[in-house]
Specification:
mainly alpha; single chain; two-stranded antiparallel sheet
Length: 120
């Protein structure tokens, strides 16, 4: 009879130790976060915030580009590395003379699985 009571109390002690360890870990984590935050640079003041240029906001440019031709390998089974490509794999396309955007065909859904009759 006394042994069962001892086991129940032993389980309570284990839970108390685990709970205390969790509380200590949380306190340590908060103190660590506070010390890291103190070492960081302060947030910029309103006068230090970035400002718009005098010309106003920068707009995106939409234009059609012509792709750069990809060179062919000398041997049929050979692969080209990025060092062998024009411009060392930088985008070297140029502005296209024709700036009209290609439109999809009439009767086409415009994407896969969007319904519509499609082409057959």
């Amino acid at each position: 009879m006394g042994r069962g009571r001892l086991e129940r109390n032993g389980g309570g002690i284990v839970l108390l130790v685990i709970g205390s360890a969790v509380v200590v870990a949380l306190i340590w984590a908060v103190r660590l976060g506070i010390s890291v935050r103190r070492r960081e640079a302060p947030t910029p003041r309103p006068q230090e915030q970035p400002r718009l240029p005098d010309s106003g906001p920068v707009r995106e440019v939409r234009e059609m580009r012509e792709p750069d031709e990809v060179p062919r390998a000398q041997n049929p089974g050979e692969r080209l590395t990025h060092h062998q490509l024009n411009g060392h794999s930088r985008s070297t396309s140029k502005r296209s003379d024709d700036q009209s955007r290609p439109r999809r065909s009439p009767g086409s859904s415009g994407s896969f699985g969007a319904g519509g009759p499609g082409h057959s």
